[in-house]
Amino acid sequence: GCGGNNNNNAGESSAPASSGAASSAPASSPAASGESVKVGILHSLSGTMSISEVTVKNSELMAIKEINAKGGVLGKQIEAVVEDGASDWPTFAEKARKLLSEDKVATVFGGWTSSSRKAMLPVFEELNGLLWYPVQYEGLESSPNIFYTGATTNQQIIPSIDFLLEKGKKKVFLLGSDYVFPRTANKIIKAQLAAKGGETVAEEYTPLGHTDYTTIIAKIKEAKPDVVYNTLNGDSNVAFFKQLKDAGITAADLPTVSVSVAEEEVKGIGAEYLTGHYVAWDYYQTTDTPENKAFVENFKKEYGADSVTSDPMEAGYVAVYLWAAAVEKAGSFDVDKVKAAAKGIEFNAPEGKVTIDGDNQHIYKTVRIGEVKADGQIVELWNSGGPVKPDPYLTTYDWAKGLSE
Amino acid sequence: MLSVQRLEAGYGESVILRDVSITVEPGQVVCLMGRNGVGKSTLVKSIMGLLKARKGSVSFKGTDVTKKAPGERAKKGIGYVPQGREIFSQLSVYENLRIGLEAHPDKAKRRSKEIPGEAIEKFPILPTFYKRRGGDLSGGQQQQLAFARALISEPELLVLDEPTEGIQPSIVDDIQDVIRSIRDEGKTAILLVEQSLDFVRSVGDRFYIMEKGAIVWEGGREDLDDPAVMKHLTI
Amino acid sequence: MEIWVSQLFNGLSVSSILLLIALGLAVTFGLMRVINMAHGEFIMIGAYGAYMTQQVFKSNFSTGLFDAYFPVAILFSFAIAFAIGYLLEITLIRFLYGRPLDSLLATWGVGLMLQQLARSIFGAPNVAVASPSWLDGGLTIASGVVFPYKRLFIFALVALCLFAMYLYIYRSAAGRRMRAVMQNREMAACLGISTRRVDSFTFAIGSGIAGIAGCALTLIGPIGPSIGTYYIVDAFMVVVLGGVGKLIGTVVGALGIGVFNTLFEWGTNASLGKVLVFLCIVAFLQWKPMGMFAVRTRSLDQN
Amino acid sequence: MKSTSILSCEKVTVSFDGFKAVQDMSLELASGELRFLIGPNGAGKTTMLDAICGKVKPAAGNVTFHGKQGTVDVTRRKEHEIAQLGIGRKFQTPSIFSGLTVDENLEIAMAQNRGVWATLRASMKKSDRERIDAELELIGLGDKKRLRAGLLSHGEKQWLEIGMMLLQEPEILLLDEPVAGMTDKETDKTGELLQEIVRKRTVVVVEHDMEFVRNFASKVTVMHEGKLLKEGSMDEVQRDDRVAEVYLGRKRRDFDAIGSTA
Amino acid sequence: MQLSNLLPRRIWLLLGYAVAAAALFSAPLYLGDFRLNLLAKCLAFAIVALGLDLLWGYTGILSLGHGVFFGLGAYAMAMHLKLVAGGSRLPDFMDWMGLTKLPWFWEPFKSFAFAALMGIVIPAGLALLLGFFTFRNRIRGVYFTILTQALVIITVTLFVGQQAYTGGTNGLTGYTKLFGYGLKTDTAKTMVYLATVVALIVAFLVCRFLVKSRFGKVLRAIRDGENRTRFLGYDPSRYQMTAFAVSAALAGLAGMLFVLHVGIISPTMMAIVPSIEMVLLVAIGGRGTLIGAVIGAIIMTQAKSELSASYPDFWLFFLGASFIVVTVFMPGGIVGLARLLNQKLTRRRNADEVNLNPVVRESNGVV
Ligand SMILES: Nc1ncnc2c1ncn2[C@@H]1O[C@H](COP(=O)(O)OP(=O)(O)OP(=O)(O)O)[C@@H](O)[C@H]1O
Ligand SMILES: Nc1ncnc2c1ncn2[C@@H]1O[C@H](COP(=O)(O)OP(=O)(O)OP(=O)(O)O)[C@@H](O)[C@H]1O
Ligand SMILES: NC(N)=O
Ligand SMILES: [Mg+2]
Ligand SMILES: [Mg+2]
């Protein structure tokens, strides 16, 4: 089980709801009253996305606990206000507004799907709040009020396609859930394949939560690709991989590359269904850094010996540390000052060194292609050799011209 | 056999029956009369346990059944023909009758696939309908089915709420005969709700008349010429 | 040619799964008329039942015995879903007969609570259930045409459940009592049937079958707190399309939706396929407004 | 007695999955007639009324209505159109709107324009109120007018439905067992009411209460197994051996005969 | 005697309504940004609930697809806002999806009047169309309900799939201005809030008029016995279509207001769960009473927000439990409970009480 401790906002008393100030006060003067400072944690704790987001919440809470144990930020203890986005985008917007204007949090860590981020974005811009978004996404965005600690496309998807082409896997079958991230990702992949001599043999989307893949698998068999590039999200992965194996297709016959399957998902699918398949991320539980050793150890201590760590969890964990570092540097919780200070901050994360890019507020990350092993762990096959500069608008890729106009 | 003492019952907030007491002796045919809406069916439902008694008691064969569920009362030997037929419309006629057997005291009979002949021979059309769904029958046919369904469990007390409604005259005569022969056998008592004075006169031993939820008149067959009877039954 | 054979098989396979998830609902909704929004959560209970059985076998028995867990899991899933269904009926559902909206509201609430309960006990992420090794692989019909054993197993399981349900509902005295109670609770009571017992037993059976479905679904799909939500709409579609209250309707409804879904998905894509299937349902009801096997009555306005 | 025909059913056949509930049944109703339709249980009386008011569609035969709006082939019309033409129906089991009050049941049954727009703008005029109150008085539900109709007793529902039917003011009233569950006196009262009504309208009554039929019938149609068995005055019908055989029962005929002379 | 009984009650009721209206109108004075926003959202949902109550409580038609109508209204308004926000540029998501020109059907939404009109006309029109194909063919009860679910799935799938035209799963967000004024200013927020209060009151009065009219009585008659009304000469399908269309129009109106308050509309709001939750609002408040729908919407939306804030990990337990408690202990919802208490207190038998069970089984026999 997962016995997450839920430090809730115990001291509700400090939340002011006085009449005049409430509606107009910008969140740039956050409640850092007395000995503590409030931060918001806004993930889906219920609904379909909770299978992924709960663990990110857990790692963020762990980071907060660690920082508090070391004396907090600017001498203040961090107090987490946890809210449930309930897998519903308008709820994310509502809760973001609540955190900023009612709880007056200094910053918010939250979101998983791009849709939830897009829903929160206007609220953060309106109230000049600060959001740390910890999941890989499709790029093409750079809000002054958001820091992106997950990978953008050139830190995950583009290198993975290069990796495949290098291995001679030219005929690619694109399979994704029918929503914005897979569709945009696949658009980029198609352009990249076209430019580099690969071939998109087919492109299929299934609704979120789809659980029958027999027909898709039949289509895959018909199309005879070298590899399936999988941007399915959430539960659909379980159904897809179980049914793929039933159809008698193993990784040796036809490998897949997944960008939304991490250790947590492997555990939920069952490693035997995934053995030998590829994944692309910036962090694995097996990533060999001293920071990661401590991270994994602490996490298991906190949430049980059989819990695992994954890329989005690590990105959420890193986000908390980066924010704390920026606050220390700024000497203030003020959003504008923190943003200014964040530029160029470096941090030795479990995934290795990360640096905040001041222009687009993404971070430099090391890209890693991995293979799923029978024990459910992911072993790195390839890495980018060092942190890759984030390029959310793909300005440095010739073939990507016209994609992002 | 059946004794209702100072019963008060009703629906929701409204009290319909006030201080009603009636008794039915073994082998007796007791008739309950009264204009529309005076509470006859309400009394019958309370006897069956479909309505809770607010005050008073119902006892059957010497035991107090006031708190018993309808099913238990049926198993104790009360058969019921409700007003409005209430047959199981999606069940076949045969199945309707088999359900009627549920309360039969004899386990072998309950289990048997055969519908006992005596109970339905008064309704000769029914066996020809065994395969048809109860709900497809005509109104009168359904009424006959409801009657047969109650008879089939060989109850010791039959509670009949306007059992001849919609039944053709010749079969009404037959039913009259059935009731008389039941009375003559003396094993089964009957509580009969009926509007037709002719009908009750020909079969009844004891008579009660209700008005506004209370018993306002009672007497034997010889008392029926009492002008009060007419008064209570007309508007 | 091969592709048609395997697609036909896939269609039937989808149908069999739809049927499995709808069978329990055919009882709780079709017969009892409880708008049972918690049906999906009973499927979830069954799935977690399989997970628990697996964990017990993993930690207590040798690997050789491990494969035997699945038949045990089916029974356990049935039992636990049955028990929870029974409990739910005697504490809640019994107050809701003849109150469709209230049954919708209350069972929705039950569903929320069960989901949250699962999240608290097993954690929010999915859990994995390893399928027994004797169900690995498949029957090779021709080159490229493989009928996975799991799918064949599900066929058999569905057939068995269906047959058992048919016997129970239409051929046994208990089933006759059950139908009588569902149609007219008061009258059934007046004829000596203990309606309370029949009610709770019936609801429990419907729930238990949902549990079996959940157990079977672990072979092919995810196991998480909210899996019920994926199946609930389809289950209702199947029951309603076939005609509420008719077991045969549920069978044909599942067949129709499954086969057409596969067909359309093959011809177009998964999303459009789904849209087309639902458009077909809309069109079909124009022709048969009460489903394929409508329950006819003479009464003017049936409930 | 010369009168024009208002409804003619010619060789109507109604079948349910092959079972012919009504077969080649013809019925001619004269305007202003009070016709009794009798016959054994399952003879097809209710089904015949169903065919006239559009509840079932005959497999064969014609039902033509010669009403104020000219001659119309009823079998081609939808139920609400038939009702609007002027054919009203009381059903065998009480069919009222259980969630509406007694008053509201009568209000919407009252003769009026049945369109959406009309009901949106309708208001309760004084004359309407009086009509409804008079009707309430007649059916004896005056003090229950604010009660939900679902809470009425069986017999009260029957009365309410009769009241609705009367307010509807159809040209033909089809009454399926209107006096079932009424006391003898109420039955007489209803009979008188019917005789009142037929001065302006045409009435078809299905009834098993022979006393009632004899007291108020001029012409009786007897059905048996979906077919016409006999048509004529009550005396003729009563003397008919086949009618006695299948319907009245020997004993009953004798008993009734005695009753009628007494 | 009846009059004297009635009069004070009327007055109390009117007084209650007046106090409630005053409280609503003055809310901007005492509520903060988030609270006011939340209340505005509640009120928008109250409008949907009114429409659903008209449909379910009074006509007996259960729609589990009102999210679609709500969403269509919301999208109509959102399209306008998106165009205004973008100025002369294409909306961002069209850009990403490679569109170079604004699709023709987006063009007219540059006009606010057109958008506002469409926000009501499109849902009502769709309801009429669906109603035409269902009610006329006597599809009703659960069969109709299932079709509304099919409608949801079809619509959501199309909206998600047609990303270039609808924004896909992300939906439409990022609005800035309305009528040239910044949407994020306090005055703008207050005005939009007040507009919502007015819309709710108008919607309430419209529904009240409908249910009190003879039309409303026919609706209830159809609920009790659709076929019986036919034999009285009414054509139920027309009444059902009208009720369905009005209800859909109200949902559309609510959707438009929702977008203005929440700042985003996406297909998740049209999906099955929100659609069902809209019905639950009515159930909580009390079906068959208009004020119940409003109360239910306000209480449940607030409760959801409060519970999830106070117990983010366990709030579903409380929400689920409260549904159960309502059904078991408060049949007829909050209003039903209030009436019950009132009855208990006054020991009066109310003749025109709510019908808790529209489906009272008459008899399953022959007609
Ligand atoms: N929908 C149906 N399906 C099957 N059989 C039917 C249906 N409707 C009527 N019948 C059959 O048609 C016959 C005539 O029924 P109908 O109700 O017209 O009889 P009736 O003359 O009104 O009898 P009663 O006097 O008992 O009311 C009956 O045998 C009945 O079982
Ligand atoms: N479910 C109910 N809820 C409230 N009141 C009811 C209910 N059923 C009946 N009543 C009321 O109870 C009173 C008695 O009804 P009951 O059915 O006992 O009358 P009855 O004597 O059987 O009349 P009938 O001869 O018409 O069948 C009536 O005034 C009726 O309005
Ligand atoms: N950003 C994602 N994975 O939606
Ligand atoms: Mg009665
Ligand atoms: Mg009849």
The greatest inter-chain interface is formed by: C-E, 53 and 57 residues
The biggest beta sheet of chain A, please?
A: 7 strands, mixed
H/E element order of chain B: EEEHEEHEHHHHHEHEHEEH
C-alpha geometry of chain B: globular
Radius of gyration of chain A over all CA atoms, rounded: 21 Å
Which word captures the global form of chain A? globular
User: What is the total tally of β strands of chain B?
Assistant: 10
What is the average of the pLDDT values of chain A?
A: 90
Order of strands across the biggest sheet of chain B? 6-7-8-3-9-10
Q: What percentage of the residues of chain A does DSSP assign to strands (E)?
A: 15-25%
- β-strand number of chain A: 15
* Straight-line distance between termini of chain B: 33 Å
Q: Which small-molecule species are bound to the chains here?
A: adenosine-5'-triphosphate, urea, magnesium ion
Strand-pairing-aware structural class of chain B? alpha/beta
Helix segment count of chain B? 10
Binned, the helix content of chain A reads 25-40%
Please tell me about this protein's structure:
The complex is a heteropentamer of chains A (405), B (235), C (303), D (262) and E (367). By secondary structure, chain A is α/β, with parallel strands linked by helices. Chain A has 13 helices and 15 strands. In chain A, helix 3 runs parallel beside helix 4, helix 5 packs parallel to helix 6 and helix 12 packs across helix 13. Chain A starts with 18 loop residues before the first helix and ends in a 22-residue tail after the last strand. Chain B is of the alpha/beta class and 235 residues long. In chain B, the strands form two sheets. A six-stranded mixed sheet of chain B has the order 6-7-8-3-9-10, with helices on both faces. A four-stranded antiparallel sheet of chain B has the order 2-1-4-5, covered by helices on one side. The longest helix of chain B has 17 residues. The model of chain B has no long low-confidence stretch (mean pLDDT 91). The N and C termini of chain C lie far apart (49 Å). In chain C, 72% of the residues lie in helices and 3% in strands. The longest helix of chain C has 30 residues. Chain D has 262 residues and is an alpha/beta fold. Chain D is globular and about 55 Å long. The chains are: A alpha/beta (405), B alpha/beta (235), C mainly alpha (303), D alpha/beta (262), E mainly alpha (367). Chains in contact: A-C, A-E, B-C, B-D, B-E, C-D, C-E, D-E. Chains C and E meet through helix 5, helix 10 and helix 12 of C and helix 6, helix 10, helix 12 and helix 14 of E. Bound molecules: adenosine-5'-triphosphate (2 copies), urea and magnesium ion (MG) (2 copies). One adenosine-5'-triphosphate (ATP) sits at the interface of chains D and B.
Write the layout of secondary structure elements.
The complex is a heteropentamer of chains A (405), B (235), C (303), D (262) and E (367).
Chain B: E1 2-11, E2 14-24, E3 29-33, H1 40-48, E4 53-60, E5 63-64, H2 70-76, E6 78-81, H3 93-100, H4 107-111, H5 117-120, H6 125-128, H7 139-151, E7 157-161, H8 169-185, E8 189-193, H9 197-203, E9 206-211, E10 214-220, H10 227-233
Parallel strand pairs in B: 3-8, 3-9, 6-7, 7-8
Antiparallel strand pairs in B: 1-2, 1-4, 4-5, 9-10
Helix pairs in contact in B: 3-7
Chain C: H1 2-31, H2 39-60, H3 63-66, H4 69-91, H5 100-122, E1 138-142, E2 145-148, H6 149-171, H7 173-183, H8 185-190, H9 195-217, H10 228-242, H11 247-267, H12 270-287
Antiparallel strand pairs in C: 1-2
Chain E: H1 2-30, H2 33-58, H3 66-86, H4 92-96, H5 112-135, H6 141-161, H7 163-166, E1 172-173, E2 177-178, E3 181-182, H8 186-212, H9 214-224, H10 226-231, H11 236-262, E4 264-265, H12 272-285, H13 290-310, H14 315-329, H15 333-346
Antiparallel strand pairs in E: 1-4, 2-3
Helix pairs in contact in E: 1-8, 2-8, 2-11, 2-12, 2-13, 3-5, 3-11, 5-11, 8-9, 8-11, 9-11, 12-13, 12-15, 13-14, 13-15
Bound molecules: adenosine-5'-triphosphate (2 copies), urea and magnesium ion (2 copies).
One adenosine-5'-triphosphate (ATP) sits between chains D (16, 19, 21, 39, 41-47, 92) and B (136-141, 166).
